[in-house]
């Protein structure tokens, strides 16, 4: 990817997505930042201290599937290309399935799985025409194992794993890469947490994950990292 590449980041308002945005901006990427919280997005844009042709905020609820095509179109028209898509936004709840409401189950599957599939559909079309692009999906180490009390979340991340590996086989001949990063515990606001309050030896830092995203993007064009699994050493997995 070149210095001026355009990266779309979902869930950029806080946690991991925010760190990824900061690291990519420092490398010169132009950014389309997506989340529902406009205030947090604008605060991030202010901190990045970049003009509108470098960073734009898109207040958007990813469960609004019908509007995803026009969101991608607006970003593409505004920046002229889309070179990187980071499907990062995610939600999850730790409790038995019987205690999940139907709305909570829908939110998990919609934001974690269906929205990334629909976004990838429209963005990969653009990337295939460009003969260049990289989709990075933030999965979870729970993509490869079961966990009681996170049934809908685990199902969504198993889906992300399958989606990533399958889409890769559809688009790689056109120069488009797909990578899934299956992470263990990260110190963010996930599941009502407060970033900065996790025990430091039991959680990865968002900046470390963001650094990993950059390394994946910086591989030579002919090299593909299709999947990475990373945990804190002392986490059970
Ligand atoms: P976080 O701090 O809670 O951030 C979640 C992000 O997702 C926020 O920016 C939020 O923005 C966005 N989001 C949620 N619902 C949305 C919606 N309907 N539409 C648009 N954006 C929405 O959590 P995080 O840990 O950074 O999560 C990032 C990714 O890492 C997720 O995919 C998560 O599954 C994955 N992950 C996390 C961990 C962990 O231990 N933290 C471990 C493995 C994988 P708004 O609220 O402003 O919309």
Q: What do you see in this structure?
A:
The chain has 237 residues and is an alpha/beta fold. The protein has a single domain, classed as NAD(P)-binding Rossmann-like Domain (Rossmann fold, 3-Layer(aba) Sandwich). 41% of the residues lie in helices and 16% in strands. The protein is built from 6 helices and 7 strands, in the order E-H-E-H-E-H-E-H-E-H-E-H-E. The chain has a 7-stranded parallel β-sheet with strand order 3-2-1-4-5-6-7, with helices on both faces. Strand 6, helix 6 (206-217) and strand 7 form a beta-alpha-beta unit. Helix 1 packs across helix 6 and helix 4 (102-130) packs parallel to helix 5 (151-171). It is globular. The chain starts with 5 loop residues before the first strand and ends in a 7-residue tail after the last strand. The model has no long low-confidence stretch (mean pLDDT 96).
């Amino acid at each position: 990817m070149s210095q001026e590449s355009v990266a779309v980041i979902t869930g950029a308002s806080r946690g991991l997505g925010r760190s990824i945005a900061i690291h990519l901006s420092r490398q010169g990427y132009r950014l389309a930042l997506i989340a529902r919280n406009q205030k947090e997005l604008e605060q991030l844009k202010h901190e990045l201290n970049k003009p509108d042709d470098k960073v734009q905020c898109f207040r958007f609820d990813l469960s609004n599937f019908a509007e995803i095509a026009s969101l991608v179109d607006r970003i593409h028209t505004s920046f002229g290309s889309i070179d990187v898509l980071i499907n990062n936004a995610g939600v999850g709840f730790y409790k038995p399935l019987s205690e999940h409401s139907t709305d909570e189950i829908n939110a998990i599957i919609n934001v974690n799985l269906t929205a990334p599939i629909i976004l990838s559909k429209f963005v990969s079309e653009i990337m295939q025409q460009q003969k260049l692009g990289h989709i990075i999906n933030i999965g979870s180490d729970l993509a490869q194992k079961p966990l009681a009390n996170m049934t809908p979340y685990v199902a969504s991340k198993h889906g992300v794993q399958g989606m990533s590996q399958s889409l890769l086989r559809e688009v790689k001949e056109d120069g488009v890469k797909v990578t899934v990063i299956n992470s263990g515990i990260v110190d963010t606001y996930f599941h009502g947490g407060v970033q900065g309050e996790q025990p430091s030896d039991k959680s990865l830092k968002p900046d470390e994950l963001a650094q990993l995203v950059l390394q994946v993007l910086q591989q030579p064009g002919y090299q593909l990292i299709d999947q990475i699994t990373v945990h804190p050493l002392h986490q059970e997995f």
